[in-house]
User: What shape does this take?
Amino acid sequence: MKQLFLIAFRNLLSHGRRSLMLGGAIAGVTAMLVFLGCLSSGVKKTMLDAAKTVATGDLNVGGYYKITAGQSAPLVTDYKKIQAIVEKTLPDLDFVTARGRGWARLVSDQNSMQVGIAGVDMAHEPQLPKILKLKEGNLQDLAKPGSVLIFESQAKKLKVKTGDNMVFSVLTDRGVNNTVDVRVAGVAEDMGLLTSWNVFMPQESLNRLYQLNDSTTGAILIYLKDMKRIPQDMDLLRKALTGAGYTVLDRANKAFWMKMQEVNKEEWTGQKLDITTWDDEISYVTWTLQAIDGLSFLLTSVLLVIIAVGIMNSLWIAIRERTREIGTLRAIGMRRRLVMLMFVLEAFCLGVMGTAVGALLGSLVAIIFNAMNIPVPPGAQFFTMSSTLKFALVPGRIFGGAAVITVCCTVISLIPSFKAARMKPVTAISHVG
Amino acid sequence: MDGFNRFSPRSSRLRGGMIVLLLALAPTAFGAALTKEKMVDILKGIDLRIRSGGDYKALVYLEQHQKDKPDTAQEALCYRRDADQKLMILFTKPKTDAGKGYLRVDRNLWYYDPTVGKWERRTDRERIGGTDSNRQDFDQSDLANQYDPAFVAEEKLGNFKVWHLKLTVKPGIDVAYPLVEFWVDEATGNYLKRQDFALSGRLMRTSYDPKWDKLYSETKKGDLWFPHEIHIYDEIDKANSTLVIIQSVDLSPLPENMFTKAWLETKSR
Assistant: This one.
């Protein structure tokens, strides 16, 4: 085997120019695949970080309350009882927090915008101070009634800074217009597209805005120690809540606000709960990930076909040039299987070296681009989920990509190698050309 | 010494007496405060004037001005059957909005979008066509039953002598604006200005109804009044405003079965 590797390697070296060109093409495709993979992972990481900060826990117990059959509100009434069931049921709970949900017009002296509101109780938000990076202001001021925490891009649009006053204006769940005056407690660094339309305000102020009592919230956000346990914990929770007499909606892979139209059409009143996962709550943006992955797959497939043709061509030439050598090797007793292996190993070596260089190159470019914080035009931010290009190096994904390309190169070399192995020694030795 | 005299007990008593006298004469000088009954009558008058009692059709033009956004204009047909409290708004222009419509069935307001071919149940206080106008601006009025009036003052609004009334929603009734102020023309009984306040007491929008037209209604056996123009100013987002023009009002009977989803869908095709 070692001898075969040596022959394959030496043969690649003896045709340096051809090997360099083909290896370069393989490296290029691998680099592109790794680069796009890092981008996809970066987008996913940004999306997950932002989602778990502003909109969702690993699991959520939300729900809808209907005053009349035609009008629902994303509310959970008497939530402390439900929170107690959650705490009792889940074995690997990290922490639980209740968050209000709202959608309102936020108006400054200069401008206005529609925003999603997360009503928070800072005493029960251990994660927020660790994740949110404040550009100005003090996060603890968010505990004060009548305060709001906004993000950088919102502050820019609304032309406000810490200490400025604004107004929240909503149509309450009973259809009455209401407003609450708020003061900017701080401005946090943007965390992608999700933070461009979400703000934080104290739960008490959100309840005042919507005219709700203290026992009502928007959803109970559940953070687990191990995200892999989400499916099992979801089942446990569903059984526990149903057992406690609550009506739980069937699972649908949609964010809570996307289900409101369907819920409005249903002829029931009162409270129904809804258990969702983090990816349900951001399902309306995960298509961007699929788009990036789809694009990577398409580009890589096209380039792989080109490379495959190149490898086959190159091997055909090598076989033609080495026909007499094949004949001699066969004549002195080399088996067909080993002849085939010799050529396959040549393609394999080329694939390993090309993908190794490509993976290194792709990773390096991703690291450099990450450090450069390259700004993304507003139109493209919907895809990147961030105002700057973010890349994440996931070793499994990089090695996986390189392995796939290497395997493709090796498999494609089987055809010419098989043909070479099938040559008759007499014909091969007497081959002139 | 002058300063001392100004605050002497004698001058203070004199000034107090003058204030009492002025307050006593005030109703004569600026117009007497209206009694509760009179104010309720005024509200009933407004409700009655706007109510056709029969069928109603009008062409409505909506113009929306928003900060940093291009102005938008929409045209819609508004149908009402006041006897059954039915309402339908069908957008006809621009092309992108043509066929969209609202239909009120019982207490539910439904919205139809022909591009997706689906009906959505919307809140009764929906902003019609995304403008600052809402269902109440096109519907019949029920002020006397929904609000308790209080007299503010008799004032001048431009050349018009008006009663300034403050209306507070009655307990247990849900309305879009729990507090409303009206400036009612003394001569005609039509309101010329209206201010809507949020539950928090913040002023949300001011609307002016400077031009009123009337038509004789056979069903009502009397005149039906309608504002020809409504200028709505967003008081929260100061740069936003909406102009509603109501024209081509027709009180002829409408087809019996037209206030249905099927009818609106047919018109949307």
